[in-house]
Design a protein that fits this description.
Blueprint lengths: L1 E6 L5 H8 L5 E6 L18 E14 L2 E7 L8 H7 L2 E9 L7 H9 L4 E6 L9 H7 L8 E4 L4 H25 L4
Helix pairs in contact: 1-5
């Protein structure tokens, strides 16, 4: 099963894939250079030195025959052309949010809402971030009541697995709801 890990620049997508993957993750990290000056908004993540230019890839085996393939998307606008390719065949997505740069979550939320792809919002805790409740995040991002919001620390494997478990439950719930809404032929 294909899962996307999305969100803004510097939110923790690469870190999440690395923390939960049972294999050494594939990463397409490149150093930030002067070419991104004036193009990439690094406010709030000034210490970041690398960026994903294509994708991250990891894997988690749930049981025989059931494997989650994790695809981390690039966070910078100039690499968003990759999202359409990466989303083909995806069952759902995690939108990571950083409370220091919450507005950076809007494009990812809009992307998955417009494609009707089930997603959850993972609020990644940063030491210098703001301490909002799930309901405050839901209101700020204008999320529907049915979209789960999970506070997490993507550096911790257990926290990342809880986030992915919430996503899978949400995906199953959305599929059941859709099957009930399909008229019998």
């Amino acid at each position: 099963m294909k899962i996307l890990i999305a969100g803004g620049f510097g939110v923790g997508k690469t870190t999440l894939v690395g923390a939960v993957s049972e294999i050494r993750p594939l990463q397409t990290e490149e150093l930030l250079t002067d070419r991104g000056t004036g193009v990439d908004d690094i406010e709030g993540v000034e210490r970041k030195t690398t960026t994903t230019v294509a994708m991250d890839f990891g894997r988690i085996t749930i049981r025989d025959g059931l494997v989650l393939y994790l695809f981390g998307t690039p966070g910078q606008d100039r690499f968003w052309f990759m999202w359409d390719e990466l989303s083909v065949g995806a069952l759902g997505a995690v939108v990571l949010a950083d409370t220091r740069r919450l507005a950076d979550s809007f494009p990812a939320v809009d992307y998955f809402e417009n494609r009707r792809l089930p997603f959850v919002v993972g609020v990644n805790r940063f030491d210098d971030g703001y301490d909002y409740t799930g309901d405050e995040i839901r209101e700020a991002l204008d999320l529907g009541e049915g979209i789960p919001v999970v506070v997490c620390d993507v550096r911790e494997r257990a926290s990342g697995k809880e986030l992915l478990t919430t996503l899978m439950r949400h995906v199953l719930s959305a599929r059941r709801a859709r099957s009930r809404d399909v008229p019998a032929v």
